[in-house]
Structures are given as C-alpha cells and as structure tokens.
Amino acid sequence: MRRSGAPSLIISLFVLCGIFLSACGTTTPATNNNGGGSTPAPKTVTLVTDIGGLNDQSFNQSANVGYTKAQNELKFRRQVIESKSQNDYVSNLTRAAQTSDMVIGVGFLMATAMDQVAKANPTKSFALIDSCATDAKGNCDPLKNVAPLSFKEQQAGCLAGVVAGQMELLGKSKLTKLSGNNTIAAVGGLAIPPVDHYLAGYQYCAKKVNPAVTVKINYSQSFDNTAKCQDIANNQISSGKADIIFQVAGGCGVGALQAAKAKGVYSIGVDSDQSKVNDSVITSAIKRVDQAVYLTIKDFEANKFSPNPAPFDLTNDGVGLAGLSSSLPAEIKPVVDKYIADIKSGAITVPDAVQK
Q: Which residue ranges does the record assign to the ABC transporter substrate-binding protein PnrA-like domain (predicted)?
C-alpha cells in the first residue's frame, strides 16, 4: 500500500503543475490581432525640453503636444525631462538615453550636448529640434543616429512681416491704434539661427511690402526671463514709437506680449498660436514643432528613422501663419496669401540673416 501511494503523489503533482503552468515558470507570449505570433512592445521615446520648460506657451509646449499625440497613439511609456539650466543638458540627455530607445531634444542650445551623448550611445536614436549635433568647434557632426529637425522659420517670419508692414501701409485711417510713426519692432531671445531666421524674414518682408517702414530689433539674451522681454518691449513702444511687437523669445517673449497689451499696441506671437495667451496678439508666426516631433516618432516606431530628414517649410505645412484677428482690415489677407503662393513657387526667396 505504501509503495502504490508514491506514484499517485507524483502524478498528482504533474497534474497540478499543468493546471498552474504559469506558476511553474512558463509565460505565454503576447499575440497580435491576427493570431500570427507575438506583438513587440512599442519602442520607448523620451522628450528632453530646453530651459523654457513645458509651460513656455511656445516651442517646448508645442513639442510636448506632438510627443503626447504620438504617445497616446502608439502607447509607449511617457517620459519627459525638463531642463532647468544649460548645465542640465548632458545629464538629462544621458538619463533619457539610458531609459529609452529614442531621445528628442528641444532646442538649438543643446546641440553640443547632443553630439556628446549620441556618440556615447551609438545604439540609441536621437532627434534634435532646430539644429544638427555639433562638435566642440561648432561644426555639424553628421552622426548616423541623430536626426536634425530643421525649419525655414524665415518663411513664417516673412508672413508676420507682411501683416505688420501692410498694417503700417494702411495707416491710422484703417487702424486707429497706430501711432502714425510707421515703426514696428521685434524682441528676440538669443541671437541663434532659429531666432535670427524669424527676425530676418520679418524684417525683409515688412520692408518689401512697405519700403518706408522702420523695423527695430532687440535681443533679451534670455528665453525664460519674462521681465527682460517686457522691459525691452516697453522701451520699443515708449521710446521707439513701435506700433507692433513681434516676440521671438519663447517664454521670455510672453513679457513682450504683456507690454503690448498694457501699452495698447498690437503684438505677434511665435511658434504656436498665441492669441489665447494675450488678446493683443493679431496673429502668430507658426513653427510646427508638434508635427515634426509626432512624425519623427511615428517614423522611428515604423523603423523609418533617417539622419537626413527634409526641412519643414511652407510646402509641407512645417511653418505658417496663424489666423488673422477679426480686428484687422480685410485687405491684409489677400496680400499674405500672395506671399504664401510666391514663396511656395520660388518666386520669392526669403533670406535667413538679419540686415544690420
């Protein structure tokens, strides 16, 4: 009797292990909807912001919109790292590379840090908004794992300049808030290529529409100090007699919009439609950072990553102009539309350098 009980016990254990197979160390692979095998987990992507942060109401926020859209659609784990200073770039990009398959850096200022981290992590993919990865001498480093996401900001800046120049051309008879001094202004952050591209287009096309207009340009040397931009804009309005303020300074530029509202003049936003930020905004020069981030992540997930993406411009909806305020005369929109058509056709080539 005792010998016959042992085999029964062994058989019972096998049966129990079969019932609780997963508890015995075996896992069942996930299957796809077609029942044709396992579904790979989505690749992970981390967004690293510039110092303006997610609430800059400008390009960092726009980048997050595109990132969030892709994350919701593709269901990868969300990870966003906000940089508080330029000293954070290398550590933030490194941390992102250690925990994800792709890293997207927001902004020209982290170009050298991106070069360093991408070289140290050759199996990871990177994308950088507004710049290529640059070496210590400031030269573009054509790394195979870094996609530079560039924009023709000068085209969007041109359209903002068309609006401002045409407003001054129409004068006080059409726009009673104008002072009659035929002067417009712009507040830039740092004198880096993306900022200067906007300003160059604004300056060039305002003068092309209205050769007599005066365009004043000043830099705040900041993308996050709202008070600096507010002070500059106040001076442009009070001393320079500017009627229209174009801000190209990220979160700092919100101060310029505030100054315009307080002084009762017009303003133009940047990167995203900023009419909801301040009701002095009559339009905004748009840079579709959200679209660039979204499409770059989509391509990466589809194994279509490219280190040589085409620039974003008017022809692919990468830049543009937000809707015009209803307070503006109807004569302005046809002029803007004509410039859009001429830029797309190549009849007008907008310069990307500010004329001193």
A: 45-352
